[in-house]
Amino acid sequence: MRKVTLIPGDGIGPEISKSVTDIFEAAGVEVEFEIENAGEKVYNETGELIPESLYKSIEKNKVALKGPITTPIGKGFRSINVYLRKKYDLYSNIRPIKTLPGIKTRYENIDLVIFRENTEGLYIGEEKFENEEQTSAIAIKRITKKGSFRIIKAAFEYAKANNLNKVTVVHKANILKITDGLFLDTAREIAKDYPGITVEEVIIDNMCMQLVMNPEKYQVIVTMNLYGDILSDLCAGLVGGLGLAPGANIGEDIAVFEAVHGSAPDIAGQNKANPLALLFTSIDMLKYLKENEKAEQIEKAVLRILEKGEVLTADLGGSATTEELTAEIIKNL
Ligand code: ATP
Ligand code: MG
Known about the structure:
Elements: E1 2-7, H1 13-27, E2 31-35, H2 40-46, H3 52-61, E3 63-66, H4 80-87, E4 92-98, E5 111-117, E6 127-129, E7 137-139, H5 145-161, E8 166-171, H6 179-191, E9 198-203, H7 204-213, E10 220-223, H8 225-238, E11 248-250, E12 255-258, H9 276-288, H10 292-308, H11 322-332
Parallel strand pairs: 1-2, 1-3, 3-12, 5-10, 8-9, 8-10
Antiparallel strand pairs: 4-5, 4-11, 6-7, 11-12
The chain binds adenosine-5'-triphosphate and magnesium ion (MG).
């Protein structure tokens, strides 16, 4: 049995995690989850936001599946999610966006992947007021050659491995000439090593328009941290919303798989959450672990249900509960 750390998380986290573990068990997946808690709920119970055992478990297993974690304000962390990505240097945030059968949206044939830089940019947390009156504030955006290089390289390698012939680099170097300029220059340099791949440079505002008008034209998008954050919610909306959008944070030797969405406190504990974002995330995790057969078995069951469109959660216009959808998937395995 391959051991994987499971962090159920806060809000809808425990409900959608249970859905995944039930489905894995029913499918006979050769993965044993080591459950570790972190976040608001653990803090209220133990006074600790991230217990030591969680770090140990991730460092030992190297692979984790993670639900959304809420970070209580003023407890020493800005965001536990961001902290874990930085601590383990999980520099590639990979977010696949794909049209699904049976899901009514404005577009067809979308099949793209966003590579979001995950450790620097505007997410380094260097922000302060400039005066005592607190009427002026600044934030620092850090872009490094090394940080840019590795995420852009990962995007090109992905394109090459999947026989895709275009990589779109998203930036705002017309305004941020030094920081975004460095990112863009790094992309141009890397592009020289991939003669078969066309590089397209698109400014972030234009990218938003292009994605809303012609999303099917894109294959691999690579960009800095904040732009990637925003674009991935936008793209999730193009194919059916946050309830369907998987994600992965990958570093040199550790990978943490998590859905794009947050803890959705508005629907937590109501048996309403769509478990599919975390389930698709866990399917990608199985593929990462080379458990392709089980990954495809579960994926097929889900696609069959989506095609029929009878058992869907409320975010997809249905009336099924989290548990009913989970049971239906298990029935279709
Ligand atoms: P956080 O601060 O943890 O990011 P949030 O309030 O931003 O929480 P998100 O999880 O980002 O909440 O979700 C935004 C909206 O999308 C919520 O109103 C939520 O109801 C909906 N949503 C997100 N994920 C799901 C899901 N898996 N199933 C159904 N609805 C979801
Ligand atoms: Mg959110």
